[in-house]
Amino acid sequence: MTAARGRTGRPPLTEERKAEIRRDISRAAVELFVAQGVAATTGEQIGEAVGVSARTVWRYFPTKESCVRPLLSEGIDRAAALLREWAPGRPLEHLFDRSVASGLGIVGGAEQAAVADLVRLTRTESGLRAIWLQAYDEAEPAFARALAERLGLPEDGLKVTVQAAMFNAALRAAVERHIWRTAAPETDPGEAEEELMATLRSALAVVGEGVR
User: Which residues bind DNA (predicted)?
Assistant: First the structure.
């Protein structure tokens, strides 16, 4: 009696494992970009830092600059989740209180430092700047959906569309201002988090005031 023929080789990766590999590639890419610049970094180097082949890197990402996307998209997803759960009527500037933001991973952890390094690089690396702006452009519909759920309004309505655009712009401006102007790499992590929270609250307070 012969054994049944079946599929041989490694089992397929789970979605969780694929997401983990993408995050590992993203963090490794940022570390290499900081150390030697984008132009000098190769797919082979990124793969070697993670323990995968360059072919695997290109399977997940079309370009080396796009390798940083998971660090951005995950933070945006968490911000959208926080916005969706925020009770109507509460001041928007308290959305990013540290205790709440820490619970959702908005601040704290190794990824915060990697994102800070990445945002600093967007000042001089045009390819990374393009990825950074594209991530926020794609975030706006996610913020609109979150606001629509929170307010019980259609996500394509004018009010939700404008509010999502304002929230999106305030979030990006606050993060850039904090990292570009006040957050040096050697800053104490605790102090940096408090400064970031203060900057986010100030930006969202401006959104809450509206245009007068």
Answer: 42-61
